[in-house]
C-alpha cells in the first residue's frame, strides 16, 4: 500500500476539527486514516502555550536556519 500524502491545509483542518470537539476516533473513522496519524498531526499543528509556535513551524525555521548556516560556512 502506497503512503498517502496530505496537504498541510488538510492536516490543519483535521486538527481544527479535533480542537472543535471531534474525537480522534471519530475523525479517523470519517476520513479513513489511522488515529496515530491524527495524534501526530495534533502534536505538530497545535501551537505551544508558551511560544504560540507549532512544532511544524519550528521545524521549518530550524531547517531554514541550518541551510543558512551551511551557506555562510561555504
SSE diagram, text form:
Layout: H1 8-19, H2 24-31, H3 35-45, H4 55-73
Helix pairs in contact: 1-3
Describe the 3D structure.
This protein has 74 residues and is an all-alpha fold. It contains four helices and no strands. α1 packs across α3. It starts with 7 loop residues before the first helix and ends with a helix.
Notable traits:
mainly alpha, about 70% helix, about 70 residues
What percent of residues are in strands?
Answer: under 5%
| Assembly state of the chains shown | single chain
User: What is the number of E strands?
Assistant: 0
Q: Helix proportion of residues, in percent?
A: 55-70%
Order of helices and strands: HHHH
The Rg value, from CA coordinates, equals 15 Å
Shape: elongated
Judged by helices, strands and strand pairing, the structural class is mainly alpha
**Main β-sheet: number of strands, strand sense, barrel status?**
none
How many helical elements?
Answer: 4
Distance N to C terminus:
42 Å
| Low-pLDDT runs | none
Quick gist of this model?
The chain is mainly α and 74 residues long. It has helices spanning 8-19, 24-31, 35-45, 55-73.
Amino acid at each position: 500500500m502506497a503512503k498517502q500524502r496530505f496537504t498541510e491545509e488538510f492536516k490543519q483542518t483535521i486538527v481544527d476539527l479535533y480542537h472543535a470537539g471531534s474525537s480522534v476516533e471519530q475523525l479517523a473513522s470519517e476520513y479513513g486514516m489511522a488515529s496515530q496519524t491524527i495524534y501526530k498531526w495534533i502534536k505538530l499543528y497545535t501551537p505551544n502555550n508558551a511560544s504560540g509556535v507549532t512544532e511544524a513551524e519550528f521545524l521549518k525555521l530550524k531547517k531554514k536556519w541550518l541551510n543558512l548556516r551551511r551557506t555562510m560556512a561555504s
